[in-house]
Design goal:
rod-shaped, mainly alpha, single chain
């Protein structure tokens, strides 16, 4: 059994390979291939966690940008009021 990591391989594909390996019940194959499959699954899990964290950070940044833009408008309005500019 040869395992290749390819760009469109999903965690579910890797788990299916684990199931097939366990179903075959060949101790040599399990001992030889399972550690690599486990590492691959761990890599997929780590990437998913990182993506979720990145999405959360992006959302937080957009919220902060909106807040700052509102503050800028408020400050510009106060400035215009104080200087007498009515654009």
């Amino acid at each position: 059994m040869t395992f290749y990591a390819y760009p469109n391989r999903l965690m579910c594909d890797c788990l299916e390979e684990c199931r097939k390996l366990l179903k075959a019940n060949n101790p040599n194959s399990i001992h030889r291939c399972m550690p690599g499959l486990i590492e691959e699954i761990q890599t997929y899990g780590n990437r998913m966690e990182a993506a979720l964290s990145d999405q959360s950070d992006i959302k937080r940044a957009h919220e902060e940008i909106k807040k700052l833009k509102k503050e800028i408008k408020t400050l510009e309005a106060k400035r215009d009021e104080l200087t007498g500019d009515n654009e």
